[in-house]
């Protein structure tokens, strides 16, 4: 600051030229021009600069407040999301446990149904075997009976002559007559 004051004090010692003219000494005129321009800028520009700085300060503070509000909102949303995630995880665990027990129940039901089906098939198989055995036995009986009947017919035809035939018919007629008398 002393240098600036000394500079203006030294200006008072310069001899006046007596007439108006251009000073071509750049080293002497440049500091004077700069000090005048700076003085005018400081005097008139101080208010504008203060207004610009105040506006900038208000915008920065407003941005900081908005950022803080957004941060608080984001924190609230994060907490809500965490709570919802925890709730969903609990529900997922419940569904998982219910799903496992449901799977076990279905597995048991399937095993029981398969066992019942196997029992029915086993019974059906046994019934079918029994039926086939009875059919085979009946077929064998029929063949044996047919063969016995054919053997008896062959034997009877071989042993039966007309006199024996006549006696058998007569005995049967007498037996039928006796039955008829009993019935009357």
From TrEMBL:
CDD domains: ATP-synt_Fo_b. It comes from the Eukaryota. GO terms for cellular component: proton-transporting ATP synthase complex. One of its GO terms (biological process) is proton motive force-driven ATP synthesis. It is a single-pass membrane protein. Residues 64-98 form a coiled coil. It is found in: Membrane. The keyword Transmembrane applies. The chain crosses the membrane at residues 32-49. Keywords: ATP synthesis, CF(0), Chloroplast, Coiled coil, Hydrogen ion transport, Ion transport, Membrane, Plastid, Thylakoid, Transmembrane, Transmembrane helix, Transport. The keyword Transcription does not apply. One of its GO terms (molecular function) is proton transmembrane transporter activity. Belongs to the ATPase B chain family. PANTHER family: ATP SYNTHASE SUBUNIT B, CHLOROPLASTIC. F(1)F(0) ATP synthase produces ATP from ADP in the presence of a proton or sodium gradient. F-type ATPases consist of two structural domains, F(1) containing the extramembraneous catalytic core and F(0) containing the membrane proton channel, linked together by a central stalk and a peripheral stalk. During catalysis, ATP synthesis in the catalytic domain of F(1) is coupled via a rotary mechanism of the central stalk subunits to proton translocation. This is ATP synthase CF0 B chain subunit I. The gene is atpF.
């Amino acid at each position: 600051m002393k240098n600036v004051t000394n500079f203006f004090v030294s200006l008072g010692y310069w001899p006046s030229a007596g007439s108006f003219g251009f000073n071509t000494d750049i080293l002497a005129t440049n500091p004077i021009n700069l000090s005048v321009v700076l003085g005018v800028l400081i005097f008139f520009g101080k208010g504008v600069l203060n207004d610009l700085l105040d506006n900038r300060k208000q915008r920065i503070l407003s941005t900081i407040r908005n950022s803080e509000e957004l941060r608080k909102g984001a924190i609230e949303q994060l907490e809500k999301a965490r709570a919802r995630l925890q709730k969903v995880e609990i529900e997922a665990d419940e569904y998982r446990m219910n799903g496992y027990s449901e799977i076990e129940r279905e597995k048991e039901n399937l095993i029981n149904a398969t066992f019942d089906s196997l029992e029915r098939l086993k019974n059906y198989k046994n019934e079918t075997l029994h039926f086939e055995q009875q059919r085979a036995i009946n077929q064998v009986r029929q063949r044996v009976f047919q063969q016995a009947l054919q053997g008896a017919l062959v034997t009877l035809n071989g042993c039966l002559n007309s006199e024996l035939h006549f006696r058998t018919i007569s005995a049967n007629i007498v037996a039928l007559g006796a039955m008829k008398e009993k019935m009357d």
